[in-house]
């Protein structure tokens, strides 16, 4: 299946410029994520065991007071650290993939753009899957609200989440199409250059 090609970015810029803007925005976003994760790690490493115990009890893991075991606290802290380092590793991978996209666009190297396209394509598939599942759930939820004469606040919250998910899916797909078109243009240009070189 061939994906549609886009002629320009936002109606006024070239595809190459659009791919560069998308790459830089993604790279800046990755840097902010890594900075905030590093800040969180620095803050979490300075928390004493007594503070960790009070945080765990406050978050509701131990509803009864004076029942917190030291081993349970260490287990919870260990799992939090494992999850954090997993998210941090994903953040580093995303930073490298975004960096490859920026370098690939500026050097017109389509091979460096491929990891970003794969990551974004998987992200778009997951977003559309979430949108389909959410649409089914929202219909059931709206029927329940309307039949019970429920709260309007819940209704508007559900509509806002739906609109946010739709906008996010459309933006992710548009960015994917822009970068894919740029990728295809670079790839075709390389093939044409190779054919001219062979003919000479």
TrEMBL record:
Positions in coiled-coil regions: none
Keywords recorded for this protein, A-Z: Membrane, Transmembrane, Transmembrane helix
Keyword Cell inner membrane: no
Membrane-spanning parts: 21-42, 82-105, 117-143, 155-179
Protein name: Putative membrane protein
Organism: Panstrongylus megistus
